[in-house]
Amino acid sequence: MSKVSCGIDFGTTNSAVSIAKHSSTPEVVPLEGNNLTIPTAIFFEEDTNNVFYGSNALKNYIDGSRGRFMRSMKRILGSNLMNVGTKINNKSVKFDFVLSKFLKNIKEKSDQYAKENIENVVLGRPVHFRDNDPQGDAQAQEELKNIAKSVGYKNIEFQYEPIAAAFAHETKILGEELACVVDIGGGTSDISIIKLGQKLQNKTNRTDDILANTGVRIGGNDFDKNLSLKSFMPHFGIGTTYGSKNLPVPSYLFSGLSEWSNINNEYNYKNLNMVNSILQQSNSKELYGRLYELLEKETAHTLLNMVEITKMELTDKEDTVVLLKFMDNPFSVISNRKDFEDSIHQNVNKICLSVKECISMAKIKKEDIDLLILTGGSTEIPYIQKHIKSYFSNAKLSQENKLASVGLGLAFDAKRKFL
Ligand SMILES: Nc1ncnc2c1ncn2[C@@H]1O[C@H](COP(=O)(O)OP(=O)(O)OP(=O)(O)O)[C@@H](O)[C@H]1O
Ligand SMILES: [Mg+2]
After folding, report:
1. What distance in angstroms lies between residue 272's CA and the mean position of ligand 2's atoms?
2. For the chain, which residues make up each domain, given as ranges?
3. 141 touches 129 (CB < 8 A)
4. Are the C-beta atoms of residues 12 and 129 closer than 8 Å to each other?
5. Is the Cβ atom of 26 under 6 angstroms away from ligand 1?
6. Average pLDDT, stretch 335-363?
């Protein structure tokens, strides 16, 4: 039996891994220098066939190296795209190949850190990979399991991400508390209601302590898309017209280029030809011409990266200006918090409904919650904080270690399950 087990939080935006040994408390593995998380991003360089991971992948792409950049690959699990695959530097590959490469990189780093070939893993999973699609959901987990097997894990278990986050926070609890975990990451919002306590930590089976889990496939990626369509795409011709009949330009491309996991699919001759022919008759040639440039130069990831940075700046500031230097004719985009909040309003409502559904599934009242655990990067957004905190106005708040708590909690679970 292996002496070390691990927990992997394969996140839509960031991934983390923690290891558990018999005799010590689980610890998070530094994956990039001292950083405890790595961006879930990969870059296949065209000229050299080199593969870069995490921040290095982002850097190579942003610096303009030729090749294929991918982010938010988790969102593809359970979808038809898994079978269709994609072209990487003129070679057709399936997405499980891409995901295996990324996971293998994480395995190598954690094995090196633990000085052992780790074979036991608890993988985090959202409560729903896909909404209202039990078959796609089961398929997503199976795909992730096969990918984990292919990189060398032998014993593979799964745990809901919000439950894992609760385990990480449980170490600080003295008595017994009823907690609601709200984990809003890049791809999904996941909610759990669970009994936590010092005496409960060593129980091998925690099923009785988990009262309810709910989730929706909404996260920071969707907020990026909302902000892109609201404040950025108007500068690229969304809502403009073409021809003497003032026909509206098709809107699907703007959506497609604002969705992290979909951008690469839009880079094709069909779209380029269509945009080119509309451009000839466009009534707003300067704006619509920028869309043509995004497709031709394949710079939509760079744009969406700037949208995401703007979104994060709006967490601390009321308004912000960003200069889009990568465009042939650089220009500035002004955004403000009010517009951002308007753009995410409907998605935040859906997340709040999922929180209410969790309370009702647990057959409790919201006032029964002693502790609110906020985790996942998107819970930084003030508009979201305001809504969730005011809903649980009686509860204490715990929100440390937002990016690594799921990974750490998975290692607590791995210890329980394997050691
Ligand atoms: N200060 C901030 N303000 C707003 N959003 C933020 C902030 N910091 C991070 N985010 C967003 O949080 C998301 C990443 O959070 P996190 O790392 O928890 O997600 P993940 O675990 O990769 O995703 P998931 O759990 O959904 O698979 C991104 O969409 C990022 O833009
Ligand atoms: Mg997460």
Report:
1. 35
2. 4-175+399-418, 221-337
3. yes
4. no
5. no
6. 98
